[in-house]
Design goal:
55% helix, ATP binding, double-stranded DNA binding, four-way junction DNA binding, DNA repair protein RAD51-like protein 2, ATP-dependent DNA damage sensor activity
Length: 206
């Protein structure tokens, strides 16, 4: 829901911008994106061209490790400027943290906190510099006041691949299997979380 709202024109209560969606569980679904768009805003998305336009504004990156997530966040400044990004979604930090840090092992808690603090600091910088909203529920506390310089020019091959998947689905060519898209129940749960976070936005548009 958050991704769809960000791409809507301002006269509909949207941000008229692009979205960066960092997917750590390979569960992003083009089908689900379209279902949300058509069910929530049927009058606006009653023609395929508007759905295609929305798909080009949602840039999905699959990052499956803590290191990859940090590298992606560090490269976002250029992406935000060039693509006019208004929302950054990380779905989810908890997933990569659980996979890589067993808090029962000595030293892991320190490394975990170091990762969370650095990531939170980078996101805080982006939020303040570009007025991008942040979801504190999806990234545990630990940010610092220091602004980190961001790197750029990381490969965009993965973004082109997944954006292309969204577009192919809208054109009726999508043939992704359930395994590749992720389990429907887990997918619906994540989108439910996004919808809950946008209650205020929906009220303004009603």
């Amino acid at each position: 829901m958050m991704s769809v709202l960000a791409t809507l024109p301002t006269n509909m209560g949207g941000l008229e911008g692009a979205v960066v969606y960092i997917d750590t569980e390979s569960a992003f679904s083009a089908e689900r994106l379209i279902e949300i768009a058509e069910s929530r805003f049927p009058r606006y998305f009653n023609i395929k061209e508007k759905l295609l336009l929305t798909s080009t504004k949602v840039h999905v990156f699959r990052e499956l490790t803590c290191e990859e997530v940090l590298q992606r966040i560090e490269s976002l400044e250029e992406e935000i400027i060039s693509k006019k990004v208004k929302v950054v979604i990380i779905d989810s930090i908890a997933s990569v943290v659980r996979k890589e840090f067993d808090t029962q092992l000595q030293g892991n808690m320190r490394e975990r906190n170091k990762f969370l603090a650095k990531g939170a600091s980078l996101l805080k910088y982006l939020a303040e510099e570009f007025s991008i909203p942040g979801d504190r529920q999806r990234w545990p506390p630990g940010s610092t006041k220091q602004a980190h310089p961001l790197a750029a020019n990381r490969s965009r091959e993965d973004r082109r691949l997944i954006t292309g998947t969204v577009t192919r689905y809208l054109q009726g060519e999508e043939e992704e299997s359930d395994e590749r898209l992720g389990k429907a129940s887990a997918r619906d749960s994540k989108w439910a979380t996004l919808r809950e976070g946008m209650e205020d936005g929906e009220k303004k548009m009603s």
